[in-house]
Amino acid sequence: MKKHKQTILLGIALIGLSILLHAVHYVVFRDMHHIMIFLVADIAFIPLEVFFVSVVLERIIEKRDERMITKKLNMLIGLFYQEVGNYLLTHLVAADKGLGDGAISANIDFKWNASKYDELASCIQAHKYSVSMPLIDLKGLDQKLTVHKDMIVNLITNPTIQEHGAFSEVLMSTFHLADELKHRPIDELEQVDIDHLKVDIDRVYRRLAEEWVSYMLHLQVEYPYLFLAAVKNNPFDNREASVKESEALLTY
After folding, report:
1. Lowest mean pLDDT, pick from 37-51, 191-205, 230-244
2. Contact present, 139 and 181 (Cβ < 8 Å)
């Protein structure tokens, strides 16, 4: 309200100053004819000024802001995957027996283009996500998520993240899993607890995998040196890390 009032007062002051300057011009030169010529000419330019300021310039600023927001968003997504996401995804992929038949082939390297990533995204979306609970280290998951719980909360409440629905779902499902693990007796789980946790883990698994595709594409385009490390630790490529790294370097 105060800012709005200040804007109105500024507008009134500028209009008053314009009137005063025109009055001084008339008093000094006594030439109303030229005053009216310049006044009409200035008014005629107003539509053009409005167009360039409100449409062209505003669009340029809007595009710049969008690029800045996207860059910041991708940095936050990268932070999450480096600290938590890659660990979770690697662990969950190892517990997914459905991947044994090569259900998802993702031997990513620097030759990959947007079309290849689209194919991978379709494959990942079609996959049936179901982990084998005996292969899940629940204590390890609990410890990892507990250590990074504050970071996850900070990301959830970040305004930039809130505008990205898909990644917000990744964070919320991960936070929910952390909460469930914290409030269940991991050493004495009943079958109902195991069944509930499996649903939560499968949800996190799916959302992590789907968002991971966009994350990898971003790294390849913007941060090749980080992309190389991500390729080396690619959870959907079961080759030895050294083999993945050496072959990726050939396409660098």
Report:
1. 37-51
2. no
132 within 8 A of 96, measured Cβ to Cβ? yes
For 156-203, the pLDDT digits (tens) are: 999 888 877 889 999 999 999 999 999 999 989 999 999 999 999 999
Output the pTM of the full model. Answer: 0.76
Calculate the alpha carbon distances from 99 to 211, 214, 237, 250 in Å: 18, 20, 10, 27
Give dist(CA 247, CA 85) in Å, integer.
24
How many structural domains compose the chain? 2
For the stretch 78-106, pLDDT in tens is: 999 999 999 999 999 999 988 866 557 78
Structural domain including 36 reads 2-61
Clarify whether residues 19 and 75 are in a common domain.
Answer: no
- Do residues 205 and 96 make contact, with C-beta atoms less than 8 angstroms apart? yes
Residues 155 and 190 reside in one and the same domain: yes
Alpha-carbon dihedral angle through residues 83, 85, 89, 92, given to the nearest 10 degrees:
90
Cα(252)–Cα(246) distance, integer angstroms: 10
- Do residues 205 and 90 make contact, with C-beta atoms less than 8 angstroms apart? no
- Domain C-terminal end among 15, 44, 61: 61
**Angle subtended at Cα 59 by Cα 54 and Cα 63, rounded to the nearest 5 degrees:** 155
Tell me how far apart the alpha carbons of residues 155 and 160 are, in angstroms, rounded to a whole number. Answer: 9
